[in-house]
Every structure is written in structure tokens, then in C-alpha cells.
Design brief:
The complex is a heterodimer.
Chain A lengths: L2 H8 L3 H20 L10 H21 L5 H21 L5 H9 L4 H12 L5 H20 L2 H12 L4 H8 L3 H21 L5
Helix pairs in contact in A: 2-3, 2-4, 3-4, 4-9, 6-7, 6-8, 8-10, 9-10
Chain B lengths: L35 H6 L5 H7 L2 H14 L6 H7 L4 H35 L5 E2 L2 E9 L3 E8 L4 E8 L1 H4 L2 H15 L9 E7 L2 E7 L3 E3 H11 L3 E3 L19 H4 L9 H12 L13 E3 L6 H23 L12 E4 L4 E3 L28 H4 L5 H17 L9 H10 L5 H4 L5 H10 L11 H12 L11 H11 L1 H37 L1 H39 L23 H20 L6 H17 L3 H21 L4 H20 L3 H16 L8 H15 L1 H5 L14 H12 L18 H5 L35 H21 L4 H20 L3 H21 L4 H11 L12 H24 L4 H20 L3 H21 L4 H20 L3 H17 L4 H23 L1
Antiparallel strand pairs in B: 1-2, 2-3, 3-4, 4-6, 5-6, 7-10, 8-9, 10-11
Classes of the chains: A mainly alpha, B mainly alpha.
């Protein structure tokens, strides 16, 4: 059923090779999800290194029960490692405000920030940037107000280059639901971008 | 796996020189060429089957995105041809997909550049040209600042190196060199000198004097943290303020504050020593890093700060004269050295005024918090620097940033809409003159500020010399005027009212005193007294005239404020009074103004309970009640109304011939009735409106006047719509049959009312007066399939109904009341056809009649009356397209359900409902487009969408319903988040979530349903509420929780 799991059961040393195959996409994911404040401070390579250690530590779990595709599993662990790094570097625990927010919101809050950053990081001049600040704020609010799952579907598809099936597995949704959700989410995003003046 | 214990044997994803910790697979950081997506997908043999289950548009979108990623430019038309039946979707969605892909690629590319930079930074050589790098002292968006030694001269310098990231960007280099050029031309004792510009190994840098000191941001933190103890200079301060110019709010100011250690005994000792021995202060630079600060509230502190800012202002003035703007003045760009000399550094954002702007992509100039308002619009001149310096002075004085917002948008809003608070409001020991100087320097409008930096420096010098400063303290009317400039819509009226009120206050006081004096004199000399009294009377008359004007202006303000936001409650049910939660979304400024006006009014009303202006003061008191009601202070309002009602009763007794007093009295009774029905005090409301009616009807002579007839019509309408306002249709819906409504009411009260009589919501099934809350129904629980009634009007009302078997139904009374209202209003309109108010009330009367149709199961009446109401409003909106309130009211009525939950299925009514609600959505869309800032319009749109979703679900269109709820939630979530204090927004959001969850549950999407229920629960639980409403919300939360558990079990 699962080629990677079978191969890893036969030859555990293949993990490195398999991981390298995921590396570019993981870099993309980490680059996208890395908190802006840490950009320029954190080496993505270090994140992947740490993730790889964690993956090596837990690979037996995967070989025993390969419930999702290899990349989906590797990505999830890398993502958790990244969250840990965020916590360490941004001292999220010490900040009471942050903590309350983290508890109250769905765990995907960061996605909207990453997406706004990406969607709006294309200013041309400081005055334009300042003028667009309101729009960005608005789009940010809009993205936040989007269904968290929808938002995540978009992020996974276009910012992490996951396939529909991988998205479905990552979010524990059915393939059909994911597909429909994706189409709907693009539709809503189109509207939001229009409202925010990103598109006409 | 035991690999954990043997990390060295692990295969590693990479091994490079720097991090190579493991052997095994070799890899470099050149992104691998493997197509990971296809690797991940190809083993999956079921892909083909699964593809069949995918949305066809999705499959094409996938291909579209993949081809974009491969560098192709696929044409959208091509995809349309392959799936013509999805043309609309493809054309709507694919451009967005292209944008996302492009952005994603850019983002990724930028990340890679940043990553390269990280690795390159580590490889900056130890020696750059003549400079040997000692250590890094700071980094920011433009580059890194090192401490270095200029070997030829053997001097220490600060070396600012352009980030290698920027090396590839000509703009960045250009800007960097320009910065150096600009700064190098400036020679001033308070500007960090720039020695020269250089390039080595392809790395650009410039050298400047190394200042041994701390940025003022640290000085502020230390002062704040230690309250005037010592400041520990960590000697790593220079230029580390050049944080990424990305528009990020400089929150390091807050976080770093906690890192300052309390002084150790040794440090304290040293500082003491140093303090005692000023002459021997040459105790070495290392020791001198411990400095004694004056207490932040001491005059010394303020003088020291004033002197610092004076020096900065002088230096800025010098730079401005040389055509250089700093553009990023803030505490972290000002360094305080060991000799207490302050230096401006980082002209990093400065630009020559004769150059094109080349500030690089992605940078947001300056730190938002210290930016002058006009800078947000891209305008900068020397006065912007002055403003930023004013804000810096604010922070130095108060040790708090003038703007404490941390979110970009909010910072901008705060900075552009309101001036910083008065420093003395934060620390009253700040000298008045400094407070004045700050306010002038940091005024919103550049024209209100010091026009030159030197003017600011001069004023600070005057303060230091204890001479009178040139800046004038702003008078209250000046503040009002400026506020008015920013809020032109209501300010004009408010200002008028306020000024008139003050005028009245003064005149009254004078008049009063003269009258008193006059009376005193009268006892001695009647003649003189009479003359004086007549003067006093004249004054009083004038004052009374002013008061009238003030009241008039005041009424206009209230109307304006009310019309800015009609309550979202109207969305579902309550089309008839705008007194409601809308006032809670007034801006703080509005509320402050209203409160000050209220204070004036209150004083007048109480000071003038007698005398010739009695009637006016009673009118004023009533207005006080109106405001209190609008501010949600219902108890105060009730008390005020009661007092003015008594006052009117007295007036009526004293002046039986004055019809105005009678009408005014009826008006107050009606207001009280509205208030009562909103509090769901039905009996009380009935009594009050009845009293109003009797008052008006008892005097047939009175009813010849138009005003009286209208008031009577209003009374009838209000009487007919008590239930509507009270949100009562849930009151008897569940298992409380039999008995007359009123007897049930009595029984419930005696049973459930708490001793204080305040906890109304103890009564089961009883809901707060807010109609939308009423819309949240306690039952019925779902049984796995949508119940029609969930999306229809729940059964009503205080009127009772034929099915109840009650003997004393109020239906006939109400019916008669509605009919009388309609007849009266029609007569009035026949006399005065153009009166919009009459026609609006006619529509409201029809609406009340339509509601009655629900109660009395007279579907024809419901439909017909609603139709009449809608028609009337349609006409009004056509004639007055410029009055958005009318459209709002129309949209609101269109949202009303046409059938009750117990009606048999009626496809015709359903279809009509859908048409109506669709039109409501349309109207709301227009309103929200025209008034994007009106949250009330957004709220109604949300409600309309949610209602439409419900209707669509009943019609079996789950997809569309879900989509609509998502759209509704898009608005409602945002409102709920932005206005946490507005309960109704929280409830609306939670309701939509609940309904969406039910729809999802029905279609088997339990995990989503659970998520949405969780979110709804979170929203409900986060809502802070007055106690009585809270109980209701608790029950709502319980129901949600129960439902959540139900769905989990399955």
C-alpha cells in the first residue's frame, strides 16, 4: 500500500533519501509558515535539521501505522517542530495576551497571517505601502474571518503545493469534500481580494 | 527505532560544512530538482478513482496551477472550452489562482533570498577594507551595525553594513549610499557624524562615530522599570534600532523592558559613589555605565527630558535647513551618551527632497507608532519630523508610548484620527507647559503644529528658562473644533449644541445672580429692584431662546447618531424603534461628547425646575432620558423619564389649555412604554401606552391638531407592536399552553421573579428584550432533519391566539389599535402627503398588523399587511434614495418571515420569502457598498444572508445554504471580533454558526459541525454580559454544548 513505509521497513537507512525528496517542499512550507519576526534570524536548514531528528525518532510510528502519505506525515512533524521553534523564539508562553489568543482561536491562526504577508508583501513605494496598509488590514481581517479550514486548504494547495489528496489527508477530510471546499474557498478569496482592492 | 541514541549513524538530509552533524546522504542547499508532488502522488493507485470524486473545476484548477508553476502561461479560455458548463466558475476563480500562485512564488523567492542572506551574513569577513570588525551591535532591515576598528587611524567606529540581501538590489545600494551622503553632509553636535562610505568584497558599508550610550528607548524602559533607580548600559546600543523597516510595530520597546535586571548592590553602591562624587566622575567609562536617573516624576526628570528634546529639535532644524528630513524620529533612533548628550542617528530613511523615492519594496517607512498622520498618506515634510519628536517627548515624559496599539491598522487609525492624550492625563506631575508643548508638537494637522523644529526648540528653551512658552493651551472649543474637523458629520451639530449650552450656562448664571441680587435689593428699594428684575428677565429670555436652540441642535445630533446606525436588532423583528444597542457602537469620542452634553442638560434640567423656562427644562430632561436610553442606561433613563413625566403632569395641571404639554406628556409615556417593552415588562408597557392614548383621546379639542393626531397614531402603533419589541414570540412557544397570556405572565412573575425584581430572565422561555436574542430559540432540538420551523417565524406573542383557548386574548384590542393607527396615519398623509415621518410610521403600523396576523393565524393579514408596509417603504425609498435609513428599514422588513412554524408547508409563501430576503440582501449590499464603515448595515446584511440560508435549506438547497452562512459569518465574525462589547454581534455570529453546524451535521460533515459548534460556544462564552442577559446566554451555550455532545456521540 505505502511504498515509503514498506521500503523503510526493509531498509531503515532509506529515510535520509526519502527526506531529501521532501526537502524542497518542506523548505517552502517552513518559509511560508515561519513567523515574520523570525525571518532573517532563523535558518530554515536548522528547522529541517531539527525536524529530521524528530522524524528519525518517530519513524517507527509511521512504519508501524502508515495512515497518511509519507510527505503528509513528514510535513506534520516538521510543522510541529516549527511551532516549537516559534514558541521558543517568540516566548509565546510569557505573553499573557498571546496565550489567551492561542487558546481561544483555532490553531490555524498563523495561516492567515502568513497569507496576508504573502498576498500583500508586494508594495511598490512607502506611500503606496502606507495607503495599502488599510487594505491589508482589511484583507487580513477577511482572511481571518474565512473559514479556518477553507483558508488552510488554500494555503496547503498554493503555498505548500500539496495535492488535493494530500490536503485531504492533512486535514482529515474526504477527497470530495476537500475538492469542493477548495473550489468554494477560491471563490470566497476572489471576493475578498476584490473587496480589498487587490483585484478588480 | 534506536537511532535516537546513535545520532551519528543517522542518515542526514544534508551535510554542509557549517552544520554537517551527520554522515550519510549528501545534499546541498541548492533546492532539489525532484518533483516532490509527483513523487508523493504517483504511488497512489487510487488517484484515478479519486479524481472522479473531485470537483471538476478543482481538477482543472490543479492543472492550471501546475502549468503556471512550470512557467507556462496557460490561457483561461482553453480551460473554459474543456468545461464549458463551468465557464462562470472558471472565469471567476482562475485569475485568483494565478494571483495566488504568483504571490506564492514571490514569497518563496523572497524567503530564499533571506535564507541566503542569513548564510552570507555569517560569512562577512573579519576585515572590511581598513576596518577590522569587533562585534555586531545591532541589525535591521537595511543592514547590520558592527563595532569596528579603523586600523589606519586606530579609532573605534560604528560600521553599518548593507545586508548582503540588498546587495543585489540597486535601489537598496542607492538608498544606502544616499543615506550616507546625506548624513555625511551634516555636522552638528547632536547628529552622529558619518566618516565615510566604502565597499569591500562586494559589501557596502559606511563608518560613523561610535557613540558610547543608550538609545532613548532603553532609557525610557530603564526609567520606567526602575522608577528612577539606575540604568544599566549594556554598551551594545548603537544603531541596533534600525529594525526591519517593514512596518512592524516596534514591540521590542515593550519586551526588552523586562530584561533590565534590578541593580545589584555593587551597582547601587557605585552609583551612590558616583552620585556623591561628581567631580570624580572620571572613574573610567566602564564604571560610568551605571547612571543615576532622576525619578520619572521629579522636576529634574522633566527638565532633563526637555533639554534632550530641545537639542534634538535644534539638530533637526539644522538638518531641515540642509534639505534632509529624518523621517524616522523615534526614541530608538536617539542615543544618549555618557555625558548626557543626545545624538540623532540613522538617517536611514532620510531622502533628499530633490530625489525620486526609491524606498524598497516591502518596507513601511518609519515606525508606525511615531509617524505623523500625514506620513500614512505618503506626505512628509519637516513638520512630520517635529510631530514624531513630539510623540517621542510624550513618551519621555510619560514613559508610555502615545499610541499603545500594536496592530498596524489600529495604530494607523489611532494616529490619524485622534491626537495623543494629554501627557498630564497620564502623569499629573508633568508641568503644564510641557504638556502644552507636546500637544502642539504632535497635533494631528501639520498646520496646528510648530511650523519649524527650531520653534519647538525655542519653546522648550523657554520652559527651561522658566519663561512663558509661545504655545497656547488649547481651549475646550479648540479641541471641539479640531475634533469637528475630523468628524464633520456630527461635529457641526455637536459644536453648535455645546456652544449654545455654554452660552446658556453663562447667561443663566448671570441672570440668576442678577435676579437674586435684584430680589435682595427689592427688599430695600422696590424701584431699583424692578428695573434690575426686568434686566434679569431679559437675560433669562435670551437664555431660554438659546436653550431652545441648543435643544434643537441636540435633537439633531441624536437623530444623526441614531441614523448612523439603526440597531441591528431591526434585522429580524424590530422595525420600529431605533433605541437599542446601536449606541454601544458609537465611537468613544461621540460618547464623551454626548456625556458632556448630557451633563450640561442635566444641570439645566435640575437647576430650572421652576421659572419661565420650566417647559424647556422639562423638555431638556426628557432628552437626557433619551440619551441615557441610547447609552443603554435604562435604569437612569427610567428615573429621568419618571421625573419629567411628573413635571409635565404638573405643567398640564397648571396650563390646561396648552396642548403641547399634553402631547409631550404622551410622548414621554410612549418612550417609557418603549423602554418597558424592551425590558419585556409587558403589563407596564400596556399601561403606559394606554395612559398615553387616554391622555390624547380624552381631549377631543386636542385631536384637532396635527401633532396630537400623529402622537395618537404613534401610540396606537406602539401599542400594536409591544410584542415585537419585547421579542416575545418565544415566551409561550414551548410547553406553556393554556390560560390567558396575561394570567400566565402574572403567574410567571410571581413564581420566578427574584426578590429584587431584576432577574427577569429567570423565567423559563423568557428572553431579553433584544429581538435578535429572541430569535435564538430555546428549542426545539434537532431530530436529525431540519425542521421547517427553525427558519420560520416562531410562534408569538403576547397577544395570545385563538388556539390557546385563552379567554382574554388581547388580539381584538391590538387589531383595533393597528387599524386606528393606520386610519389616523392615512388621514394625516392625506392632509400632508409629503411627510416622510408619517409614511414611515404608516409602514410600521402595517408591519405591526402583519405581526398580528402571525399571532392570530391570519396568514392573509400577515401577507397583505407586510405587503402594504413594504410597498409604502418601497415608495419612500424611491422618492428619497438619499435616505439610507429608509432602505435599511425596507431591507429589515423584507427579512420578515411570512409564515409561522405551525403553518403547513406553503411553497408560495416560501418562494415569496426567498424573493423578499434576496431583495433585502440586495439592498444591504448596496448600503454596505455605499457606507462601508457602517457596521449596522453589515450586521443587517449578515442577518439577511443568514436568513436566506435558512430559507434555502428549507428549500433543500444545502450547498447554497452553507455558502450563504459562510458569507454571513464572514461579516458576523468580523463584527463580533471588532466589537466584542456588542452582544448582538456575538449572538448573531453564534446563531449562524449554530445553524451552519446543523446543516453540516445533516450532510454528514460532523467534524465541521463540531468545529463550528465549538466556535459558537467560544463566542457565546467569551461574551461579557450584564447579569440578566448572561443567564440567557448561558442557556444558549448549554444548548450548544449539548448539541456538541450529541454530535460527538454519533
Amino acid at each position: 500500500m505505502n511504498i515509503e513505509a514498506e521500503r523503510l521497513a526493509r531498509e531503515p537507512d532509506a529515510l535520509g533519501e526519502l527526506f531529501v525528496a521532501c526537502q524542497a517542499q518542506l523548505e517552502r512550507m517552513v518559509g511560508f509558515r515561519l513567523d515574520r519576526r523570525l525571518r532573517g534570524r532563523i535558518d530554515v536548514a536548522d528547522v529541517l535539521q531539527e525536524a529530521f531528528l524528530e522524524i528519525s525518532r518517530r519513524i517507527h510510528e509511521y512504519v508501524a501505522r502508515p495512515e497518511v502519505r509519507f510527505y503528509v506525515w513528514v510535513r506534520q512533524i516538521t510543522y510541529q517542530v516549527l511551532l516549537g521553534i516559534h514558541r521558543r523564539h517568540l516566548s509565546l508562553k510569557r505573553d499573557a495576551n498571546q496565550e489567551v489568543k492561542l487558546r481561544a482561536k483555532p490553531s490555524w491562526d498563523g495561516t492567515s497571517i502568513s497569507m496576508v504577508r504573502a498576498l500583500c508583501g508586494q508594495h511598490t513605494s512607502p506611500s503606496a505601502a502606507a495607503v495599502r496598509e488599510e487594505e491589508i488590514e482589511q484583507l487580513g481581517q477577511s482572511l481571518k474571518s474565512m473559514d479556518a479550514v477553507d483558508r488552510e486548504v488554500l494555503a496547503l494547495r498554493h503555498f505548500e503545493h500539496l495535492s488535493n489528496n494530500e490536503v485531504a489527508e492533512s486535514l482529515s477530510l474526504s477527497v470530495t469534500a476537500t475538492s469542493n471546499r477548495y473550489v468554494r474557498a477560491v471563490g470566497r478569496l476572489s471576493e475578498l481580494m476584490q473587496t480589498a482592492g487587490i483585484t478588480r | 527505532m534506536s537511532d535516537f541514541e546513535q545520532p551519528d549513524s543517522l542518515p542526514s538530509p544534508r551535510c554542509d560544512a557549517k552544520f554537517g552533524s551527520a554522515a550519510g546522504v549528501s545534499a546541498t542547499w541548492v533546492p532539489t530538482q525532484l518533483n516532490v508532488t509527483s513523487v508523493a502522488q504517483s504511488p497512489d493507485l487510487s488517484v484515478m478513482n479519486l479524481t472522479a470524486q473531485r470537483n471538476p473545476v478543482d481538477a482543472l484548477a490543479d492543472e492550471f496551477a501546475t502549468r503556471l508553476r512550470n512557467g507556462e502561461s496557460p490561457s483561461i479560455d482553453g480551460f473554459v472550452q474543456r468545461l464549458p458548463e463551468q465557464e462562470a466558475a472558471i472565469r471567476a476563480l482562475f485569475p485568483s489562482i494565478a494571483i495566488m500562485e504568483r504571490i506564492s512564488e514571490n514569497d518563496h523567492a523572497q524567503n530564499q533570498v533571506v535564507q541566503q542572506a542569513i548564510r552570507l551574513t555569517d560569512s562577512i569577513p573579519d576585515v572590511l577594507g581598513d576596518f577590522r570588525i569587533v562585534r555586531e551591535i545591532g541589525r535591521g532591515g537595511m543592514g547590520i551595525v558592527y563595532e569596528a576598528v579603523q586600523q589606519s587611524l586606530g579609532r573605534s567606529v560604528a560600521l553599518k553594513v548593507v545586508s548582503p540581501l540588498a546587495a543585489g538590489s540597486d535601489n537598496q545600494v542607492l538608498r544606502f549610499r544616499r543615506e550616507a551622503e546625506a548624513a555625511a553632509r551634516l555636522h552638528h553636535t547632536n547628529i552622529v557624524p558619518v566618516f565615510g562610505i566604502g565597499e569591500a568584497h562586494g559589501i557596502h558599508f559606511f563608518a560613523m562615530q561610535l557613540i558610547d550610550g543608550v538609545p532613548l528607548s532603553e532609557f525610557i524602559q530603564s526609567t520606567r522599570t526602575e522608577g528612577g533607580g539606575t540604568i544599566q548600559d549594556q554598551g551594545r546600543s548603537q544603531h541596533d534600532s534600525s529594525r526591519p523597516a517593514t512596518g512592524e510595530v516596534d514591540d521590542a520597546n515593550f519586551t526588552a523592558a523586562t530584561q533590565v535586571e534590578p541593580p545589584t548592590a555593587v551597582q547601587l553602591f557605585r552609583s551612590l559613589q558616583q552620585d556623591q562624587n561628581d567631580a570624580a566622575a572620571a572613574c573610567g567609562r566602564a564604571e560610568s555605565r551605571i547612571k543615576v536617573l532622576p525619578r520619572p516624576t521629579s522636576p529634574d526628570h522633566f527638565r532633563k527630558v526637555a533639554a534632550m528634546v530641545r537639542d534634538v529639535a535644534s539638530a533637526l532644524s539644522y538638518a531641515h535647513q540642509h534639505g534632509v528630513l529624518h523621517r524616522d524620529i523615534k526614541p530608538s533612533n536617539l542615543l544618549l551618551d555618557q555625558e548626557d548628550c543626545v545624538w540623532i542617528t540613522d538617517f536611514g530613511l532620510a531622502r533628499h527632497e530633490d530625489h525620486e523615492d526609491v524606498t524598497r519594496t516591502g518596507d513601511l517607512v518609519g515606525t508606525l507608532r511615531y509617524m505623523a498622520p500625514e506620513q500614512f498618506g505618503g506626505q512628509t515634510d519637516s513638520r512630520s519630523d517635529t510631530c514624531s519628536l513630539g510623540l517621542t517627548l510624550f513618551e519621555l515624559l510619560t514613559l508610555t508610548p502615545a499610541c499603545t496599539e500594536t496592530r498596524h491598522g489600529l495604530v494607523i487609525r489611532a494616529r490619524t484620527e485622534s491626537p495623543p492624550p494629554a501627557p498630564r492625563s497620564i502623569n499629573p506631575s508633568i508641568p503644564v507647559d510641557l504638556d502644552t508643548i507636546v500637544q502642539k508638537a504632535a497635533a494631528i494637522a501639520p498646520g496646528d503644529r510648530y511650523q519649524t523644529a527650531v520653534a519647538l526648540a525655542d519653546d522648550l528653551q523657554r520652559f527651561l528658562d522658566d519663561r512663558p512658552i509661545s504655545a497656547r493651551r488649547m481651549r475646550w472649543h479648540e479641541r471641539l473644533r479640531r475634533w469637528g474637523r475630523r468628524n464633520p458629520a456630527i461635529a457641526a451639530l455637536s459644536t453648535t449644541a455645546a456652544i449654545l449650552l455654554v452660552a446658556v450656562a453663562v447667561t443663566f448664571a448671570v441672570g440668576q445672580r442678577r435676579a437674586q441680587t435684584a430680589q435682595g435689593e427689592a427688599q430695600r428699594a422696590q424701584q431699583g429692584a424692578l428695573a434690575a428684575l426686568s434686566v434679569a428677565e431679559t437675560e433669562r429670555t435670551r437664555a431660554a431662546g438659546n436653550l431652545n436652540l441648543a435643544i434643537e441642535a441636540f435633537e439633531q445630533i441624536i437623530d444623526r447618531i441614531a441614523s448612523r446606525g439603526v440597531s441591528p436588532s431591526l434585522a429580524v423583528t424590530d422595525g420600529d424603534e431605533e433605541v437599542s444597542l446601536s449606541e454601544t457602537v458609537l465611537t468613544d469620542g461621540d460618547v464623551a461628547l454626548l456625556e458632556s452634553l448630557l451633563h450640561f442638560f442635566d444641570r439645566f434640567a435640575s437647576e430650572n425646575d421652576s421659572g419661565t423656562t420650566q417647559a424647556d427644562s422639562v423638555a431638556a430632561r426628557k432628552k437626557v432620558g433619551d440619551i441615557q436610553q441610547r447609552l443603554g442606561r435604562f435604569d437612569e433613563a427610567a428615573a429621568t423619564y419618571l421625573r419629567s413625566r411628573q413635571a409635565y403632569a404638573k405643567l398640564v395641571t397648571e396650563n390646561p389649555d396648552n396642548s403641547e404639554y399634553v402631547i409631550a406628556q404622551a410622548d414621554i409615556l410612549n418612550e417609557m412604554g418603549i423602554s418597558a417593552s424592551r425590558r419585556a415588562e409587558i403589563d407596564e408597557a400596556i399601561q403606559l401606552h394606554t395612559a398615553a392614548r387616554l391622555l390624547l383621546e380624552n381631549d377631543q379639542r386636542l385631536l384637532t391638531t396635527e401633532a396630537a393626531r400623529f402622537e395618537l397614531a404613534r401610540t396606537f402603533t406602539l401599542y400594536g407592536s409591544i410584542g415585537q419589541r419585547a421579542g416575545l414570540w418565544t415566551l409561550f412557544t414551548k410547553g406553556r399552553r393554556g390560560g390567558s397570556p396575561s394570567s400566565r405572565l402574572r403567574e410567571e412573575r410571581s413564581t420566578f421573579r427574584s426578590p429584587t425584581g431584576r432577574h427577569r430572565w429567570d423565567r423559563p422561555g423568557h428572553v431579553p428584550s433584544h429581538p435578535e436574542i429572541a430569535g435564538v430559540r430555546p428549542g426545539p432540538q434537532y431530530d436529525g432533519e431540519a425542521r421547517r420551523d427553525q427558519y420560520r417565524r416562531p410562534e408569538t406573542s403576547f397577544a395570545g391566539g385563538p388556539n390557546r383557548g385563552g379567554g382574554d386574548s388581547r388580539i381584538p384590542e391590538i387589531k383595533q389599535s393597528c387599524q386606528s393607527a393606520i386610519r389616523l396615519l392615512n388621514e394625516l398623509i392625506a392632509d400632508v402627503p409629503d411627510n416622510t415621518t408619517y409614511r414611515l410610521w404608516l409602514a410600521r403600523a402595517y408591519r405591526a398588523e402583519s405581526d398580528l396576523g402571525h399571532s392570530s393565524r391570519d396568514k392573509n393579514l400577515t401577507t397583505a399587511s407586510l405587503q402594504l408596509a413594504v410597498t409604502e417603504l418601497e415608495r419612500l425609498t424611491t422618492e428619497h434614495p438619499d435616505i439610507p435609513e429608509l432602505q435599511y428599514e425596507l431591507a429589515d422588513m423584507l427579512c420578515l418571515p411570512l409564515s409561522t412554524n405551525t403553518d403547513p408547508a406553503d411553497s408560495e409563501a416560501d418562494a415569496q420569502s426567498i424573493t423578499n430576503v434576496e431583495r433585502a440582501v440586495d439592498l444591504c449590499e448596496n448600503l454596505t457598498t455605499a457606507y462601508p464603515n457602517s457596521q449596522e448595515y453589515q450586521s443587517l446584511l449578515g442577518t439577511a444572508l443568514s436568513r436566506l440560508a435558512g430559507l434555502r435549506l428549507v428549500a433543500g438547497n444545502v450547498e447554497s445554504a452553507t455558502e450563504l452562512w459562510h458569507n454571513a459569518l464572514y461579516l458576523q465574525r468580523s463584527l463580533a471580533e471588532r466589537f466584542p462589547a456588542v452582544t448582538i454581534y456575538q449572538i448573531a455570529c453564534a446563531q449562524s454558526l449554530q445553524q451552519l453546524a446543523e446543516a453540516e451535521h445533516r450532510t454528514g460533515l460532523d467534524s465541521l459541525a463540531r468545529d463550528h459548534l465549538d466556535e459558537a460556544i467560544a463566542v457565546v462564552q467569551q461574551t461579557e454580559l450584564p447579569e440578566d442577559v448572561a443567564r440567557f446566554m448561558d442557556r444558549f451555550a448549554d444548548r450548544l454544548q449539548k448539541r456538541r455532545t450529541d454530535i460527538s456521540d454519533k
